[in-house]
Specification:
By secondary structure, the protein is of the alpha+beta class. The chain is 41% helix and 21% strand. Helix 7 packs across helix 10.
Length: 284
């Protein structure tokens, strides 16, 4: 079974060591996403239809809100990965430059000796449960090295030309259609309901086909992926910041049972919610 060895929440976002042997459904995060192979059989991350093999020589990048999925290389024993979820605003503030916007120039990175050293260092600190003041610095340096490398390999596009990599509509402030913005607000307000997207479409003043088409044109992802992201983020906050029973967390998010919530969480995060809560540490 997929399991979490360590999960650390901090100002940067999340850093986790996961041993994963199960596929993950197509999902998205508002953070930038980096995946590094630590031990075991190579696996595949598919982002926006492009497959990236994650192995000892190659890491994977996913931009904020970019849909992606995961297929394990070893369904029996799993593979150990270091997975980073980096907040774009943190990366921008720490980098102190407008060109630090967290948009990767390509979907993969070569594991250089310097990147390899930082992956091993961060993994060791997570396993040893050491979250020193230097931890954020190591994470920033690792992210910056990967970021710089992806743009170095994309000479025709600059980091400021985000549309060339990820549609600018994925930056929610750029969503022009008020009906799509209204549907996002309705989804956020109704997380505790068993939300039916047909109802959201109707209440936003749209037919179902028009709603799906307009949402994807404006947001760059489907309404299903957006709604699941909201549920996933709320679930992670409840697991790490409250003592609510897992059954209650699932019911609060509109799931009929703990089993259905566990299936959803595992398909979108990679591990069961009980395991995530056990491994999580929240820093200041």
């Amino acid at each position: 079974m997929s399991t979490a060895l360590a999960v650390y929440h901090g100002p940067f976002g999340r850093a986790a060591l996961y041993n994963i042997n199960r596929p993950m459904a197509t999902h998205a995060h508002r953070e930038g996403h980096l995946t590094f192979h630590v031990q075991g059989t190579p696996s595949v991350v598919t982002a926006s239809g492009l497959e990236c093999r994650i192995d000892a020589g190659t890491g994977g990048t996913v931009n904020p809100w970019q849909p992606h999925s995961f297929n394990p290389g070893d369904p029996e024993h799993g593979t150990l990965f270091l997975v980073l979820y980096i907040k774009p605003l943190w990366f921008l503030e720490v980098g102190r430059t407008a060109q630090g916007a967290l948009r990767f120039g390509r979907d993969r990175i070569a594991i250089t000796p310097q990147i390899h050293r930082l992956v091993k260092l961060v993994s060791a600190l997570l396993l040893e449960d050491i979250h020193s003041d230097l931890f954020d610095g190591y994470l920033y340096e690792l992210t910056r090295l990967c970021y710089d490398q992806t743009w170095q390999w994309s000479p025709d596009v600059s980091p400021l030309e985000g549309e060339a990599v990820v549609p600018v509509q994925q930056q929610w402030s750029g969503i022009r259609d008020f009906r799509v913005r209204n549907s996002m607000r309705l989804m956020s307000e109704r997380l505790s309901d068993e939300v039916v997207l047909d109802t959201i479409a109707r209440d936003a003043g749209l037919s179902r086909p028009h709603f799906y088409k307009l949402f994807r044109e404006n947001a760059g992802i489907t309404p299903n992926v957006y709604l699941n992201t909201l549920k996933m983020e709320t679930a992670i906050d409840s697991l790490t910041l409250t003592q609510k029973p897992i059954t209650t967390i699932g019911l609060d998010l509109g799931f009929a049972s703990q089993a259905s919530f566990t299936r959803f969480f595992t398909a979108n995060v990679g591990i069961p919610p009980t395991d995530y809560r056990r491994a999580a540490f929240v820093g200041q």
